[in-house]
Design a protein that fits this description.
- By secondary structure, the protein is α+β, with helices and mostly antiparallel strands.
- The chain has two domains: 68 residues, Structural Genomics Hypothetical 15.5 Kd Protein In mrcA-pckA Intergenic Region, Chain A (Roll); 206 residues, 2-Layer Sandwich (Pseudouridine synthase), CATH 3.30.2350.10.
- The protein contains seven helices and 17 strands.
- Strands 7, 8, 9, 10, 13, 14, 15, 16 and 17 form a nine-stranded mixed beta sheet that branches.
- Helix 2 packs across helix 3.
- It is elongated.
- The termini are far apart.
- 39% of the residues are buried.
């Protein structure tokens, strides 16, 4: 079964994740939106699928679609450019050790190298769960299911994001303790942040920082508010999944059994009630999450 000539490879963050609620409702009724089905088959992002539909490239049961507002089922006969749709893969999740210097985007207008350009050959089309900025490094979760990525990003899951942070300056214990009450910076309210001083090395200090909200560049902005400049930021955990011993640039798929255990029924994340055990960092990445906080 051949695929259309213009298909997506390992690719972009699913820009149409806002349609997730409609997808969930559609799935409950026995169908899902056509754009999501195309994305799950690994052909493109949902936004690209909508453009393909507008161009008249997609047909369902012999009828060319004019609108993406169509639900399809397993019995639907879907073609793109006259070719049958590939069978959708099962939901999969990978741990990736993002090096510094890569943009978490499919295409960068400034021409900088991206995460998706550096993934190993043979990876299916994937999207990231949240982001890490250009100079941040560490654990980035990747999945072939845009709806799952959206769910894993929700603060309501209670999934803690944990970081190792090197700052320039001498953090005061009272300052760090005060972050547990949350902080308002330039009119933006940030939720509770747990920050612990690990060690002071001359003019620099290493902190362990944990949060569940994950606003854009949250850690860097909060540290700057305390008079501390961040010189290195490494995400070491996202919910129950750990960076562990992954080398920079390395990708490791989370076993289906571990993924099922952590998501529970209906692919919904289990709410995290406590921090992962440090011993979990040496296992296969799972216990026994959109965040742009870096």
């Amino acid at each position: 079964m051949s695929e259309p000539d213009q298909v997506g490879g390992a690719g972009a963050k699913d820009d149409a994740g806002k349609a997730g609620a409609q997808d969930d409702a559609g799935k409950a009724g026995g169908g899902e939106r056509i754009a999501r089905r195309l994305a799950r088959a690994g052909l493109c992002s949902r936004r690209e699928a909508e453009r393909w539909i507008a161009a008249g490239r997609v047909s369902v049961d012999g009828e060319t679609l004019a609108s993406p507002a169509v639900l399809v089922t397993a019995a639907s006969r879907i073609t793109v450019d006259g070719k049958p749709l590939p069978v959708a893969d099962r939901t999969r999740l990978w741990r990736y050790h993002k090096p510094a210097g890569l943009v978490t985007s499919h295409k960068d207008p400034e021409g900088r190298p991206t995460v998706f350009e550096r993934l190993p050959v043979g990876m299916p089309r994937v999207v990231s769960v949240g982001r890490l900025d250009l100079n941040s490094e560490g654990l980035l979760l990747l999945t072939n299911d845009g709806a799952l990525a959206r769910r894993l990003e929700l603060p309501a899951n209670g999934w803690q994001r944990r970081y190792r942070v090197r700052v320039h300056g001498k953090p005061e214990p009272e300052q760090l303790a005060g972050l547990m009450r949350g902080v308002t910076i330039e009119g933006v309210r940030y939720g509770p942040i747990k920050a612990v001083l690990d060690r002071q090395q001359g003019a620099n200090a290493w902190l362990t920082v944990a949060l569940t909200e994950g606003r854009n560049r949250e850690i860097r902005r909060v540290m700057a508010h305390l008079g501390l400049g961040v010189s290195r930021l490494i995400r070491v955990a996202y919910g129950p999944f750990q960076l562990g011993l992954l080398d920079p640039g390395q990708v490791d798929e989370i076993p289906a059994r571990v993924l099922k255990e952590q998501l529970g029924r209906d692919d919904r994340p289990k709410r995290q009630t406590k921090s992962p055990s440090p011993s979990m960092e040496e296992d296969h990445g799972g216990g026994g999450g959109e965040d742009q906080s870096a």
